[in-house]
């Protein structure tokens, strides 16, 4: 068997380093919602629903809310 010899400069400057400090990662996507001010907001969400024959139907829902 032969040998593989690599002749190259040090590539440490191109390596990814671990992030320093504390950080958090979100799980999933953020809410698709906008604050309209005055306690009102408008958002879009996807919800599963079942049809009469039992099939799952994904629905896009437009949601508005008013705080009182």
What would you say this structure looks like, in words?
The protein is an all-beta fold and 68 residues long. It has one domain (12-66). The chain has strands at 32-37, 40-50, 56-66. Strands 1-2-3 form a 3-stranded antiparallel β-sheet, with no helix packed on it. Strand 2 (40-50) and strand 3 form a beta hairpin. The mean pLDDT is 85.
Structural domain tally: 1
Note the gap between the termini: 78 Å
Shape: elongated
- SSE ordering: EEE
Low-pLDDT residue spans: none
Structural class, judged by helices and strands? mainly beta
User: Strand order of the main beta sheet, please?
Assistant: 1-2-3
Task: Note the main attributes of this structure.
single chain; 68 residues; mainly beta; 3-stranded antiparallel sheet; 0% helix; 41% strand
SSE map:
Elements: E1 32-37, E2 40-50, E3 56-66
Antiparallel strand pairs: 1-2, 2-3
Briefly say what this structure is.
The protein contains no helices and three strands. A three-stranded antiparallel sheet has the order 1-2-3, with no helix packed on it.
């Amino acid at each position: 068997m032969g040998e593989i010899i690599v002749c190259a400069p040090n590539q440490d400057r191109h390596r990814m380093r671990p992030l320093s400090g504390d950080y958090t990662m979100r799980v999933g996507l953020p809410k698709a919602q906008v604050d309209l001010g005055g306690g009102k907001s408008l958002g879009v969400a996807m919800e599963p629903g079942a049809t009469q024959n039992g099939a799952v139907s994904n629905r896009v829902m437009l949601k508005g809310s008013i705080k009182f």
